[in-house]
Amino acid sequence: MGRKWNNIKEKKASRDADTSRIYAKFGREIYVVAKQGEPDPELNQALKFVVERAKTYSVPKAIIDRAIEKAKGGSEENFDELRYEGFGPNGSMVIVDTLTNNVNRTASEVRAAFGKNGGNMGVSGSVSYMFDATAVIGIEGMSADDVLELLMDADVEVRDILDEEESVIIYAEPDQFHAVQAALKSAGITEFNVAEITMLAQNDLTLSPEAQAQFEKMIDVLDDLEDVQQVHHNVHLDD
Q1: The domain 130-201: what is its CATH number?
Q2: CA 161 to CA 172: how far, in whole Å?
Q3: What CATH number labels 2-72?
Q4: How confident is residue 14, by pLDDT bands cut at 50, 70 and 90?
Q5: 96-143 pLDDT, tens per residue?
Q6: If pLDDT is split at 50, 70 and 90, which confidence band does 44 have?
Q7: Is 20 helix (H, G, I), strand (E, B) or coil?
Q8: Which residue intervals define the domain TACO1/YebC-like second and third in the entry (predicted)?
Q9: Is the pTM higher than 0.85?
Q10: 80-129+205-233 against 130-201: fold identical
């Protein structure tokens, strides 16, 4: 799992480096989820999850509140949730999750990002079968053994708990996300350095330095697209 944590860390680092972009992406996602259900995180578990994840990226409360208020105000702006799958250099696999108000534009931009950087778009299901949806929660201030004991006492099932540098990372089924957080909060944990449901590759791929450079350029282009919310892949990124 350590290699997987390295990829999650790299993704967070790249997003943290561009605050305006990450704020805009979370603002859109919070608006969409709030509009689909109750615009109250305490009454809408999906919204609560997105808000919790936004906090791990240091999204200001004002931006979160503004997106929720926009949903409350009955805005007519609508977005479709679409997933694209494709291949990068040397058969690397990529999943691109988007929120878009213009499907044709988004499909064209994603296809171009693949095609101009050594990759190509695949059909739905062409790579996602090699990934598992996984809840990933990272904390500090407790040991892995203490976290395991806490979660066992709370009758919360997890896939794995690992010490990763100065953090303890918990991997669980997506439907256990809120149960894990609730158990940790009951033990006094109030801050999370990662709290998200992501797609983890079942097997990692290591690329040559040249192929990795091309792959990273492709990922950067995808991440920069306005409609792209998350990009998942199976490449082990060397520091």
Answers
A1: 3.30.70.980
A2: 9
A3: 1.10.10
A4: low
A5: 999 999 999 999 999 999 999 999 999 999 999 999 999 999 999 899
A6: very high
A7: helix
A8: 80-235
A9: yes
A10: yes
